[in-house]
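Quick one:
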Amino acid sequence: MVSKELIRQCIENDRVAHGQLYRSCAPYVYAIIKNYISDTHFRKDALQEVFVELFTALESYDSMKGSYKSWLSRITVHTCIDLQKRKFKIFDNLEESSVEEPELEVEFNERDLEKIDLLLNDMPSGYKTIFLLSQVEEFSHDKIASMLGIKAETSRSQLNRAKKWIKKNMIQIKNLSPNEVF
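Output:
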C-alpha cells in the first residue's frame, strides 16, 4: 500500500509525498468511513480529519508492531468514533440494559455478508457502530465500552439488538420464515 520511503518523505514534510500518500490511501480510508458515518456530506469532513490525524501521528507508526494498513484502519475507526461522539452524540442515548442478555449466536455465510453490507446503510447508528467494532474490528466489549464511554453490558446489549435487527431485516429481504434465515 505505502512504502517506507514515502512515509519517511511525509515525516520530513514533503508536500508531494503527502499528496501521494493521500491518493493511495483515500479510497481505503473512505471505504471504512462509509461503514461508520451515514451522512455523505459528513464523510468528507471525516476523511479530512483522518488524514490530519494520520499526518500528525505518522512519526509514531512502527512497522514492527503491525502493518501500515491495520494502523491506518485503527486511526480511521477511532477518528470516526470520536467524530460521532462529538458531532452526533449517538452514544449518549444508548439504552442501558440492567439485565445482561445472553449473547445471540448467529452464523453468517458469504451470501448473507453481502446483504448485511447493504443493510448496514439503514441500521441505526448505535447498533451499526457496535456491530462493526465487535464483529468486524473484533474489539472486546470492554474496549468498545472504553472507546464509546458506555458500559460493557450496554455494548453487549446493543450488539444483540443489532444482530436481531439484521436477522429481522434479512427475513424481510428474503421473505422467509425466521428459521430459514441463518
